[in-house]
Amino acid sequence: MIFDRPTNAELVEVVSEFLEKEIKINLPDHLAFKTQIAINVLNIVKREQQNEEILSKESKEILLNLFKDPNKANIRELAKQIETGELKLDNKELQEVLIEITKKKISVDNPKYSTYKKLIE
Fold this sequence. Notes:
By secondary structure, the chain is an all-alpha fold.
């Protein structure tokens, strides 16, 4: 909510904690598993909301270094140029961009992922 508290991130956090601490422990295994998936989704949403501005800015800068044209510095253009062959996967600059963009994505999706931790060290 942009005008008061709790914020969207705080609301998502409360629901995630409630599911984790109050609900999941009282469910049969198959439902606990599905509840954990829901908790993971909520945590992704929370991290995305908390970091959206900085991640968008950093990703735009990374893509701008590759494309040089602000109108083309976006993920859709990147995908299009890879698909059409305008950018070749053996291009070292492209490889660096893909690694950096992937690290940003993992920082939201699963920052506890062991390979991600190695990449950022």
